[in-house]
Amino acid sequence: MSYFTGAPRSSNRQARFSLPTIFTSQTVARFLTMSALLLLIGSPAEAQRDGIGAGMGFDVEYISPQRFRDPGSTTRAWFPAKYVCGETQPGDRLVQGTYSTVINVLNLSKFRVRIGWWFSAGPGVGIQGAQAVIESHGSLYMDCPFIIRNLRASGVEVGSFIEGFIAIEDLNDARTDRTPTRVAAVYSSLHKQVHNLPDLLPRQTERSYCQRDTEGRLIATIRNQGEANAPASTTRIAFEGGAAFERSTPPLAAGAEAGLEPVPLPRGEGTIIFTITADGMGAIREMNESNNTVIGTCLLLQ
Predict the structure, then answer these.
(1) Which residue from 105, 98, 157 is spatially nearest to 127, judged by alpha carbons?
(2) What parts of the chain have a pLDDT lower than 50?
(3) Matching CATH number, 195-300, of 1.20.1640.10, 1.10.287.130, 2.60.40.420, 2.60.40.10
(4) In whole angstroms, what is the distance from residue 302 CA to residue 289 CA?
(5) Is the Cβ–Cβ distance between 235 and 260 less than 8 Å?
(6) How far apart are alpha carbons 6 and 4 in whole angstroms?
(7) What is the pLDDT of residue 192?
(8) pLDDT of 99-151, one tens digit each?
């Protein structure tokens, strides 16, 4: 299996407490959801005064292993986990909002274990991911930035929102009593309505945000899709494992956009992964702060 850019993050820290048995995962999820709503909304009088309304969803799903083998191959335990990442738009299948997924993989054994995974992002052949070793009683997680980086590195067109599956394969003994891997998926969604503010975000003018000038330099375009004018700001363009650049962004009226000063691409060939962050200094209060950063790719050929 080939290794893609960006490995899942691992942790071997042990928990310092445990919940009483009366607290089920559903109880915890409901408690966290209500806590988040209270923090976001505040009192009814406060929400009405500010013209802000918010709703948050939170859920934890424990993924059951599915034992499967192709003809002539070895039986393996598979954990198919759904992912939803990004911001939906009016007319999309899901309610308009911002969605996030974190998939956690735990090793119950005192011995190290090995896992692999495949990505599915819709019709067509799945995308082979990589393999990873999880140390004794350790864990790792795969979040939306990790998923998007791997999909883009494989040539998948990723817009503001994407959904699909990660099929995690336990590469150890598939017998029920000898499968040490456990998988849980954490889902959160935020529907937030804030009015009379700007909303800056990078606009996709070319495939994978790879708009280039005649000299081959990268051009970022920033749009204000909010309800108020945005003052001058700073946009940050950062290349994975390389340099980062800041570009001045002019004031933008509601609905306006601007192409910024070009940025030189790294030398070499292959797939270049980068991020574009509108209002990179976090200086402007916006209707939606979660859509400021996008992940893009450019394929460089010599």
Answers:
(1) 157
(2) 1-6, 11-52
(3) 2.60.40.10
(4) 38
(5) yes
(6) 6
(7) 62
(8) 999 999 999 999 999 999 999 988 878 998 999 999 999 999 999 999 999 99
